[in-house]
Each structure stands twice: as structure tokens, then as C-alpha cells.
Amino acid sequence: xxxxxxxxxxxxxxxxxxxxxxxxxxxxxxxxxxxxxxxxxxxxxxxxxxxxxxxxxxxxxxxxxxxxxxxxxxxxxxxxxxxxxxxxxxxxxxxxxxxxxxxxxxxxxxxxxxxxxxxxxxxxxxxxxxxxxxxxxxxxxxxxxxxxxxxxxxxxxxxxxxxxxxxxxxxxxxxxxxxxxxxxxx
Length: 186
What we know:
The protein is α/β, with parallel strands linked by helices. Helices cover 49% and strands 17% of the residues. Helix 1 (39-58) crosses helix 2 (77-96).
């Protein structure tokens, strides 16, 4: 089975997996010349949806499922508005191009649970040291610490190990998209 998976955030990470093997991946970055409400966000959402439609059509008839991460609440209003509009735009364009029957939504917590993504004991210890450093007024550098380990770090680490990649932390949208797709095989 070939799956296109999508991590919807300010940058749209995507991946194509076939039978648990990574075929391709990338990120869709649409410049935000106009992030005004509603027209700038509406326009950007539609342009991202058109890019994804292009991915689906370029890989037809091989794409058998499009897995999209459900929207999570955000305190960043324009980012949340973009993600909400994006979900509308992708549904609209998928109906117009007759691939809406391929779409499946997955919750963030669900795909992380399926892939058993949890902080290790070492990660938790590191995070405790970071917390203590902040309380003591010492810097992370003074204590030889890199920084807090988050769920985004786990996704990047996971796909780098599994697929022998070298994604950087700033490419976490791609890592999330790969994880979303991979979880669909479980």
C-alpha cells in the first residue's frame, strides 16, 4: 500500500511511504507575503492544497490513502486559522479531483502511541536537569546540557534511526509526516 501522509502546521510536511518503506518526503512552504485575516490565510491555504493535489495526481493511481494529522489547538491565532482553512481547502480540492475517498484523519496522540513515542529515562533526566538549571540561574551551557527534549525531537530521532536519514530539528514537520504515514501500517 502506498500512502501520502501530511503534517499540517505552518509548514506542511509530507511523505510517501510504500509498505513501510520511505519513497519520498518534503515540505511545502508557501511564502506568507500576506498573513492577513481572512484573505491572506485563505489564499495560502488554497495554494498549499493545490500543491498537495499535485502530489496526489502525480502519484495516481499509486496513492491508496492520504493520511492527514488532525488539527490541534494553538494559541497562535493566525497559525490556527491557516490550519483550519487548510483542512477545508484540502477537502474541497480532493472532492473536485475525486480523491476524497482516500482521506483518513489521525490524531497526534494516536500516531505517537502507535509508534510508542515516549521520552526515555535519559530524556526525562535531561529535562529535569534543564528545569533545575533554570531555577538555579545557571545556563544550559554551563551545565553541559543541550536543551529540553520534546515530542518533536522524538519524531526526528525516530525517523533518522529508522530510515537512516539526517533530518535536522528544524525539519520536524517532515519527520512528523513520515511518522504519521508509518503509523498507518500498524
